[in-house]
Amino acid sequence: MKHPDDDNELFNRLEAEMTADSGGEVVDLDKARSAREQSADPTARPDANPSADSAPDRSGTESGDPTARVLVDQPTAKAAGPGYLGRLLAAKRRPVVPVWLKSLAELRTASAWVARHYAHSVGYHALRSPVYAARLTFQAPSGAAKFVGATMRWVADREGEPVRLAAVRREDAAEYLKLSRQRDGRVRLRTLVAVLAMFIGLGSALAIYVLAPDWLQAVSVGAVTMALGYAGRKADDPVIHKAVELPKAVKLTSDIVLRALGSLGIPAINQAQGKGRDGFEFTAPITRDGPGWRAEGNLPYGVTVTDVIERRDRLASGLRRPLGCVWPEAVPNEHTGHLVLWVGDQDMSTAKKPKWPLLTSGIVNLFKPVAYGTDQRGRWVEVTLMYIAGIIGAIPRMGKTFLLRLLLLIAALDPRAELHTYDMKGTGDLDPVGNAVSHRHAAGDDDDAIEYALNDFRALREELRRRTKVIRSLPRDICPESKVTSELADKRSLGLHPIVIGVDECQVLFEHPKHKDEFEEIATDLVKRGPATGIVLLLATQRPDAKALPTGISANASARWCLKVMGQLENDMVLGTSAYKRGVRATMFAWGDKGIHYFVGEGSDARIVGSAYVDGPAADSVAARARKVRETAGTLSGYALGEEPETVASAYDLLADILAVVPAAEPKVWSETIVSRLAELRPEVYDGWDPDALNAALKPHGIATIQVGRRVDGKVVNRRGIERAHITAAISERNGKRDAG
Ligand SMILES: Nc1ncnc2c1ncn2[C@@H]1O[C@H](COP(=O)(O)OP(=O)(O)OP(=O)(O)O)[C@@H](O)[C@H]1O
Q1: What PANTHER family does the entry give (predicted)?
Q2: Is 679 within the bounds of a domain?
Q3: Is there a binding annotation on residue 400?
Q4: Do residues 57 and 49 make contact, with C-beta atoms less than 8 angstroms apart?
């Protein structure tokens, strides 16, 4: 038996669901009521919503009553989504002024290109003008003959001759008479005009010959000769050739886009097109966007932009364009089937790029964005090197080192920045920067270079700690955000100038058999705490996996540059978890796409950027300029001045210091006791160390902490500590090795 309350419950639920679905929209209560009535009538059809007919199982039976049905589809079109106001709120307005018109840089670039185009044309023709003049003069007699002939034909009304002859052939005397009379009148008039023109022409020529100065005579004769020469030109041999052959970029039309999408082999698109539909719903007209075309629209249900990106090569084939011209993209915050297809006029890898603005002049403020590459549309893309930690990943030979060097050159052009450059590949790619301006620099993966880098990393850790203390001690009004600012970096007494560390092939450090843990620990600290203290770590690797790029580092990097990689794993290691799934796939880059990469940073989603190409000699000249600026500012230091670094290890010897503060009478001591004694012994080094820091610093020596029990107030308290014998053993092992060495 059905309880009357069941009806009310159903009605309430209907109301609740409809209100929830429509986001507080008006619900058609009549329909809802009729649904209630129908479900109350056991003979009535249990489905109140005709639109649910086709749905196999859209009913709910949660109430336990199998006849009770829940409306899933909205009963009226009116309640089918947000209202007019809601839609307006979510509406995306297209910019009134196109972006390219608002961008001063783009306008400047475009104007420069147009100016260069015309300057080239003028130069081209100016150089050839004597040849043009000679050829025209040579053609002038034939032009004169053509002119005289054409004039005589005109005077004699030759154009009417075929009609007159036709009248003769037809033997139409009346028609012929009419035409002859018309011709006689015309010939008389034209003869008069010709004689008049001849007199005026000859009179003018005579006047010029008698009265005009020489230059006017020369100009007049020249002009007449050139004009006659032009009249004497041959159709198949023009005197003036085109200075510039403009490439003919095929206009992108909806038919071409649909043809290309149909060639991808995506079943949903093919099925739709097979049934005569488009298989793609354009949401905006195809427009010019920079030096290319932009098409935008929705793919069929279930097809995602990543499905298209995966088949970029087939798309390029379908569009009949080079691969480097075809750039399908997902739109952030849109549904995953919303495709933006940008088709460039020229291949991005071969298109002529504008000159990098810093190549020949200018310095940099690292706290401000600096242009380092161009996007597909040729617009400059900027990067702010402060407050970031960055990773660069790619398979070999795609331009990773060039990109790292470019970023380091940018850093070099801020005279305040202290550079630490490590080229672990050892081919000298970073030498232009290193030799000219670096405070610390090493190349190669031999023991000396590793020791040098380790020593520097240790010093950087100390510097990081010092900086955190300085920042903490600064008054709020000077350092409101507890981070280094450009103004703070200017105050030399604080020592908060930017420090930029660049490591190429960083896997050499993080996979080093002996020091990998220490490198990893320091680098993780620099990635996490460095950005706020003005320390920037840039790591490049050709093998972005968890070993080469420990996850503590890759997860915390805030800037990412990913050139071509081979698989999802590497892609996501560099660009961040699930980047591949979101369609940000550096796997789609072609082998020829050197320097082209996805850039994630500057607070925006992944962008495709082609980095500015600065080769070795150009890098040398930029670095030489940076050195000069530093010499003037008095900020050149360290390696660039030929100074050897003080080895941190020799400045303090942790093991010896521990022995100094732990007498032989204490075989086992708590870590906290040791760090407080060390801080007393050498406050400039150990101040601020905690047991964890001590533990981390001892790890590379192969010393682990142990449980140490001590009696406090009659009770045994266990804490982490160190056994003195381990320290002495480590020292004798070290000394033994050194002696052997
Ligand atoms: N922005 C660029 N534009 C055009 N070509 C570039 C660009 N950057 C690099 N290249 C070309 O790519 C080649 C390889 O660059 P690079 O040495 O930086 O590669 P890599 O990824 O560091 O290689 P490896 O892994 O062997 O060190 C260079 O010789 C250069 O000619």
Answers
A1: DNA TRANSLOCASE FTSK, SPORULATION PROTEIN RELATED
A2: yes
A3: yes
A4: no
DSSP for 104-140 reads HHHHHHHHHHHHHHHHHHHHHHHHHHHHHHHHHHHHH
Tell me, yes or no, whether 386 and 427 share the same domain: yes
Q: Which residue among 594, 608, 609 has the greatest number of ligand 1 atoms within 8 angstroms of its CB, and so is best to mutate? A: 594
Co-location of 609 and 688 in the same domain: no
Sign of CA dihedral 162, 167, 173, 177: negative
Nearest CA to ligand 1 atom 16: 399
Domain-terminating residue out of 90, 125, 153: 90
- Asked whether residue 711 is domain-assigned, the answer is yes
> Within 6 Å (CB) of ligand 1, which residues are found?
394, 396-402, 425, 542, 594-595, 611, 613
Structural domain tally of the chain?
A: 5
Q: Is the ipTM of this complex over 0.95?
A: yes
Ligand 1 centroid–CA 588 distance in Å is: 18
Q: Taking a C-beta distance cutoff of 8 angstroms, is the pair 671, 691 a contact?
A: yes
Which atom, in ligand 1's list, is nearest to the CA of 596?
Answer: 1
Tell me if 569 is assigned to some domain: yes
Could you tell me the CA-to-CA distances from 116 to 289, 321, 730 in Å, in that order?
21, 27, 70
627 plus 570 within the same structural domain: yes
The residue among 344, 359, 389 that closes a domain is: 344
Domain co-membership, 547 together with 672: no
CA 473 to chain centre: 39
Q: How far is the CA of 396 from the centre of ligand 1 (A)?
A: 8
For ligand 1, the distance from its centroid to the CA atom of residue 423, given in whole angstroms, is: 14
Which CATH number belongs to the domain containing residue 265 in this structure? 3.30.980
Judge if 589 and 616 occupy the same domain: yes
In this structure, which amino acid lies at residue 54?
A: S
- The residue to mutate among 400, 402, 423, having the most atoms of ligand 1 within 8 angstroms of its beta carbon, is 402
Is the domain of 493 the same as that of 614?
A: yes
Is 401 annotated as ligand-binding?
yes
CA 145 / ligand 1 centre spacing (Å): 63
The C-alpha atoms of residue 698 and residue 686 are separated, in whole angstroms, by 13
Residue to substitute in 352, 353, 395, 401 for testing ligand 1 pocket (most ligand atoms within 8 angstroms of CB) = 401
702 CB neighbour count, 10 Å cutoff: 12
Question: Is position 362 annotated in a ligand binding site?
Answer: no
Q: 478 labelled as ligand-binding?
A: no
Domain presence at residue 249: no
Q: Are residues 467 and 337 in the same domain?
A: no
> How far is the centre of ligand 1, averaged over its atoms, from the C-alpha of 403 (Å)?
8
Which residue(s) pair with 499 in the sheet? 418, 535
399 is in an annotated binding site: yes
Range of the domain at 51: 4-90
Q: Are residues 588 and 662 in the same domain?
A: no
Q: What is the mean pLDDT of each run of 10 residues along the chain (741 residues)?
A: 45 45 42 48 40 40 49 54 74 73 71 86 92 91 93 90 90 90 92 94 91 90 91 83 70 92 94 91 88 91 89 92 89 86 87 87 94 87 94 94 97 96 94 95 93 93 90 87 91 92 95 90 92 95 87 90 93 89 86 92 81 94 95 92 68 80 89 90 80 83 85 85 89 65 40
**Rounded CA separation 140/145 (Å):** 9
